[in-house]
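Comment on the following before class.
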Amino acid sequence: MTDWRELREELVAQVCERGISRAVAGALRAVPRHVFLPEVPPHTAYRDDAIVTKRDAEGRPISSSSQPAIMALMLDQLGLEPGQRVLEIGAGTGYNAALLSHLVGPEGRVVSVDIDADLVARAREHLDRAGCAGVSVVCGDGAEGYAPQAPYDRVIATVGVWDLAPAWLEQLGPGGRIVVPLDLHGVQRSVALERADGHWTSRSVVPCGFMRMRGPFAGPETVRVLDQGSDLTISLPEGGEIGDVLAALDGPVTELPTGVDAGHAQLVDGLSLWLAVHEPRWCALSETQPGRLASGLLDHRGFKTVVGIIEGDSLCVLEPDTYDAPAVRAFGPGRVRLGADLVAHVQAWDGAGRPMTAGLRVDAHVATVPAGGLLIPKRHTTLALSWDAGGFRRGDD
């Protein structure tokens, strides 16, 4: 018989290395993840990994059980207290709702909304099996929230969101807090926001990565699977045309040194964010099987991700052979010019002090648009980004 408790303790110990609170660690110990992943082998269920649970007709992942470490960090961002009412956007397997329920206790209430009826049915089944009585799972468009049980003390989204839905803000009570994986031109950051002086301001910002929200409230991102064999996928955060990428990758390649000695964590966190908010041609490529990507900024259990710039039939990526010496690999007819643009971005990021997520401040303005600064216009809000002095320290890798 599998010793679920021992596996769970190993997972909790690993997640605790990220500096999570005792309360969240207690929730991870109390809620059995394997109950919410009945088709997954025991050791897989208690890895600190995201696990895909549903794909669309084209094979793209559209639902998962999120990585426990990221879930834990977001729960700490949420700052839950016993007796609070919580609205969750994206039910998934129901596991996160169970963690929320444990944290708010028997006097609290959790409402979880998901757009897929089959996921709602499964989440209810899993929650019943786990003995979670304080959760209501509702089928509907998460962008509309769930007004019948509003107001809420906390709102959390477990899907990547392009903008803050007006319904979430309206259904959040006085003194409330919302935590969402917010799209910053294609790069996600989990942002905890509260009301302040007529707008919403961040209390904490954490790197994250979630599947995007679907339905009418989805953003303009274009995602295309280029090669089924390696699952090579390209995403353009603001949409747009995708040229003959496979032909470019199979053709001549030009390598350009960046001249910047940066560590892995700095590249994944800081440089990716810099490209996202400064380069409209920014793109990301990923693959799950060996294929055309030599190495990647993210390379975990065979899943590789690289970032770069695309323009027509040309593209370039930051694809380091070693983490301490990143280089640009450029493909296609315009590869030299495009590669030089990416090198310039790397050097500009370095010259700015290598800003990271630490020190990032996000202000969301609903009624007015601030003047100046680094702005990201959305459908319902305008995001203003800034860094405090700590965001510009080079820091340790």
Observations:
- The radius of gyration is 21 Å.
- The chain is about 25% helix and 30% strand.
- The mean pLDDT is 87.
- The chain has two domains: 4-207, 222-351.
